[in-house]
Each structure stands twice: as C-alpha cells, then as structure tokens.
Amino acid sequence: MATLLVRQDCADLVLLHLLCLRSFTAAILDAIEAGQLKHNFLIGGCDAAEPSRRYYNEMVKGLPQDTMVLTLNCGKYRFYDQDLGQLPNGLPRLLDMGQVRNCRT
Questions:
Q1: pLDDT, tens digit, for every residue of 72-105?
Q2: What is the DSSP letter of 54?
Q3: CA-CA distance, 66 to 37, in Å (whole number)?
Q4: What are phi and psi of 29, to 5 degrees?
C-alpha cells in the first residue's frame, strides 16, 4: 500500500484542498532547503480503465527518491498500490489533493 498523507481535519473539505497543503508547507520547504526534495510532480488527469493505459503508473515508478507526487485525478488509482516511501524528514512522497474537480483552489 502506498504511503498517503491523510488529515482528519481536512477530510470534509470540498474545493479547499489547498488549505490542507498549506498545513504541510513548512515540512515541504524544509525538505527543499535541505536538498531532500528536488522536484514536485502534479498528476492531474485520468489513465482510463483499459489495462494497457498505464502512463501515470510507469511515470511514477521511474521518479527519483528526491521527488514528491501531488495528485488531482482518478489516474492515481493506477499507482496507489506502489509504496513511494517518504522523504528523509518523514513527509510522504505522495500527497493526495483529491479529484480533478477539487483543483479549483
């Protein structure tokens, strides 16, 4: 199972996922300043239901350990079974920001 960052106080928010991300800003900035986080990838689209469509799955598999993946899509279900692990400061490499409809913020 992939490492997910879930905050109970953010679970009921609709279209306000940016507020959840803001609560982790200090940890993200610390990781950047320490050289532990070099790139952020936002995956915001669908990979569709056909088994042959595995673009996001393959992309996430190939990312270096000093990267973080933010998701805004249903394509994330293609790689939820992968354990992306954590950055050295304990922050998970996968941050789920909800579905595509949640990206209005």
A1: 777 677 777 788 889 998 888 888 777 666 555 4
A2: -
A3: 5
A4: -65, -40
Cα 51 to Cα 47: distance, rounded to the nearest angstrom: 9
- Residue bearing tokens 């249903």: 74
Question: Which two tokens mark 72?
Answer: 């805004």
Give this prediction's pTM.
0.71
DSSP summary character for residue 78: G
State which amino acid sits at residue 94. Answer: L
How would you class 51 by CB atoms within 10 Å of its CB: exposed for 0-12, middle for 13-18, buried for 19 or more?
Answer: exposed
pLDDT one-digit tens code per residue, 17-68: 666 677 788 888 999 999 999 999 888 777 667 777 778 888 888 999 999 9
Is the four-CA dihedral 20, 17, 22, 82 of positive or negative sign? positive
